[in-house]
Design brief:
alpha/beta; Rossmann fold; 2 domains; 6-stranded parallel beta sheet; elongated
Length: 349
């Protein structure tokens, strides 16, 4: 039998627990978003963008897409764009610190590696700054959402299928990636290697080398030429890097090797349109402006406390429609396309 005093204490405990539960709820009734306790909804937001390289045309196109979304939303929604000069996680750290000091509402980062800036991003979360990634991820516990241009395995699959088509299913090929720590490129390369070893249709193809262009056009051009010299039977190169594919295509074209060696990978289609039209180059691509646009709407949803990263959550992305958070707190822009002579004119960038 409970005494009156004990019953009163029990009632107070229930009320306290109820109060705590209400404090931790988001406006949509979900749990509080990751990154420092309860979530305070914010209407007009400032999103600080940290690319891998500030002057990379791909990244500036993402920025422009984000700015379109901010303008469309009106109010004082704002994009702040920073400019790392090296594609490393350590080079991104000062920019995370700078955005924390500016008290932005959201940091949107394209990770140069998984863990390089993760500790600083967690500090941002601890100060109630939401963190999302786009294009290339960081450690999952250092961000709320990853806005991916396409499913990782679809991109690896697309590049290998494209290379196989260009080579007629047989021959030696190499990979010219960006940096050894690039999260997205490493995931695509792992998928390519897995399929090579497990699918009979690729039995005639042989991966002979993986080299790195260090996110620099001149280095990438030299690496492409070196691959042709080092491997005299080389028939193709997969280049999963937006700076490196145009550089490699131009370099091989200049020395008369393009055609003998065919290229595919990821790059703005407009930068290699001429080479694509020869039939010696293909490209796996998507609407980059839309990636930036979607990332800002995702940042808005996170800052508004309507999205916490839980699978199944939905948010509005303006002209792109509704998006749903998938596994591992990932949002997919949509399927990429293989760009060939037949459809190259569809891509403005």
């Amino acid at each position: 039998m409970r005494t009156p005093a004990r019953a009163a204490l029990s009632g107070l405990a229930v009320l306290s627990l109820a109060s705590l539960a209400l404090t931790a709820c988001t406006p949509s009734g979900g749990t509080a978003a990751s990154g420092g306790g309860s979530c305070t909804p914010k209407d007009n937001i400032t999103v600080g963008y940290i690319p891998k390289l500030g002057d990379d045309p791909y990244m500036t196109t993402v920025r422009d897409g984000a700015q379109k979304a901010a303008t469309e939303l009106g109010g004082t929604n704002k994009v702040v764009y920073t400019s790392p000069s090296e594609a490393t996680g350590s080079a991104q750290i000062p920019f995370v610190q700078q955005l924390i000091s500016q008290k932005v509402d959201v940091i949107a980062i394209s990770g140069s590696d998984l863990n390089g800036a993760a500790a600083e991003l967690k500090k941002a979360q601890a100060q109630a700054i939401k963190v999302i990634t786009f294009d290339s991820d960081v450690a999952p516990d250092a961000r709320s959402l990853f806005i991916n241009q396409a499913k990782t395995d679809e991109l690896g699959t697309g590049m290998l299928d494209s290379m196989s088509n260009l080579l007629g299913g047989t021959g030696e090929f190499a990979i010219l990636s960006s940096t050894q720590t690039a999260v997205n490129q490493n995931a695509w390369i792992a998928d390519i290697k897995k399929r090579l070893g497990s699918e009979a249709k690729f039995s005639g193809m042989k991966l002979v080398d993986v080299v790195y262009g260090e996110e620099k056009a001149d280095v990438s051009a030299n690496r492409a030429k070196e691959l042709v010299t080092t491997h005299p039977n080389l028939k193709g190169i997969i280049v999963p890097a937006g700076i490196s594919l145009p550089a490699a295509a131009t370099a091989l074209d200049e020395i008369g090797a393009l055609g003998k060696v065919k290229l595919t990978g990821l790059a703005p289609a407009s930068l290699i349109k001429k080479q694509i039209q020869t039939g010696n180059v293909q490209d796996i691509w998507w609407n980059v402006t839309d990636l930036g646009y979607l990332s800002f709407y995702a940042a808005k949803a996170a800052a508004s406390c309507t999205v916490t990263g839980k699978a199944g959550e939905k948010f509005d992305a303006g002209k792109l429609g509704s998006y749903t958070v998938g596994d591992e707190k990932t949002v997919i822009l949509g399927p990429a396309k293989i760009v060939t002579t037949a459809n190259v004119n569809e891509f403005a960038f």
